[in-house]
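dumping this here so i dont lose it
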């Protein structure tokens, strides 16, 4: 039995009820969860599970099977639990994730720059870019244009398309397309009227929720590998 990942449909869910379907090591598998298990540069969620008048901290998640690693007592198989994520932490990460999508869209569409990797944190992020002629000045222009897009407060939506449609739309393949070969349906995140790309993480519903992006640092990591660090302010 696989865990139903509730965050895929609603990034704003903060709590949920579930049943323990398996106990492994120092954690549990649940039949459903709101906790993001990590991946795609987005860190796992933390929070608490409540059961039988007790509570334990969720201090880690296993990406491969959504195992909730606990600090404290472990509920038994078949137990009913109530989970609550650390919402303020998640929301700051959601803002950063959506900001990265805006920057990725601007860099790709306006300047021909490809994003090759990212790491998300609370209201900040690190991004790697593949562009031989990249400079701090160009990075500043990308951030400036990204803030202009945010001011439009475009809607952000997420939904699924078939694997066949995904293959017909190369603009969605911002990462290695082989990563999606095992899926029959591909989840995409669309900034309406601006950008769309395959993605499995959590996002805000409107761009103004991101706040303002600031370029914190620019680094050259090689001839075609440049890195920027961004922070968000409300």
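and the seq i came up w/
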């Amino acid at each position: 039995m696989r865990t139903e990942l509730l965050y895929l449909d609603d990034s704003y869910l903060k709590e949920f009820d579930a049943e323990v379907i398996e106990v492994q090591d120092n954690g549990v598998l649940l039949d459903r969860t709101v906790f993001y298990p990590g991946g795609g540069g987005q860190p796992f969620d933390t929070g608490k599970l409540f059961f039988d008048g007790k509570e334990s901290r969720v201090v880690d998640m296993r990406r491969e099977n959504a195992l909730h690693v606990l600090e404290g007592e472990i509920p038994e198989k078949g137990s009913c639990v109530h989970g609550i994520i650390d919402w303020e932490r998640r929301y700051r990460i959601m803002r950063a994730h959506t900001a990265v999508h805006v920057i990725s869209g601007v860099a790709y569409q306006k300047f021909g720059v490809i994003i090759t990797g990212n790491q998300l944190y609370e209201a900040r992020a690190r991004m790697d870019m593949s562009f031989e002629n990249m400079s701090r000045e160009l990075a500043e222009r990308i951030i400036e244009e990204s803030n202009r897009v945010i001011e439009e407060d475009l809607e952000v939506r997420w939904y699924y398309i078939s694997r066949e449609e995904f293959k017909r739309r190369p603009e969605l393949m911002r990462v290695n397309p082989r990563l999606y070969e095992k899926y029959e349906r591909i989840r995409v995140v669309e900034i309406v009227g601006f950008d769309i790309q395959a993605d499995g993480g959590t996002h805000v519903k409107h761009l103004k929720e991101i706040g303002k992006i600031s370029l914190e640092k620019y680094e050259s990591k090689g001839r075609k590998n440049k890195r920027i660090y961004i922070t968000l302010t409300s």
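Residues 29 and 67 are 5 Å apart (CA to CA).
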